[in-house]
Amino acid sequence: MLRLIHWLFLICVGLGVRAGHYPRAPSACLYPRNHGGCYTSYAPYWYYHFQSRMCRKTWNRCPRNPNNFRTKKACRKTCISSVPEYRACWQPLDKGVDCHHCRRTHGCGEYRFYYDRRRRYCSRFYYYGCGGNSNNFRSRRACMCRCVHYKKWLKCKFWSKNQQP
């Protein structure tokens, strides 16, 4: 009976992922936190919490559960870094460079938004106009849609890098 409930859970999560336009995380990351044969560990383990899209610490070791990682880095690499849509959100703030040498092609600086991992929020910054990285969004809404779990409220759709709202 427990296996049936487990499979129904995975099917429901899988359907929810497709219906909500979320990118697919590896299947190990979709398992519930404490599924199967858990015991208390003296060292912390990490699991991926799908709703918050974060790796969280636990003191329960569940060897039969693939959503169970020895380090936070391993959890992030498997469940976050492997999903291309999230990679931008995990990059540090990069304001770019002064665009005096590329005014003709890009125009100069403007205010943009980046995802601040510590605050778990999209913050405003002044983008100098050239360079930088992909943690750089034209609007707070675009940043929130990509990096924060607000898709249901904002009615977000995934877009390509050049089609940000």
UniProtKB/TrEMBL annotation:
Pfam families: Kunitz_BPTI. Gene3D superfamilies: Pancreatic trypsin inhibitor Kunitz domain. Residues 29-79, 89-147 form the BPTI/Kunitz inhibitor domain. The lineage of its organism: Eukaryota, Metazoa, Spiralia, Lophotrochozoa, Mollusca. Keywords: Disulfide bond, Protease inhibitor, Serine protease inhibitor, Signal. It comes from Octopus sinensis (East Asian common octopus). One of its GO terms (molecular function) is serine-type endopeptidase inhibitor activity. This is Kunitz-type serine protease inhibitor bitisilin-3-like. It comes from the Eukaryota.
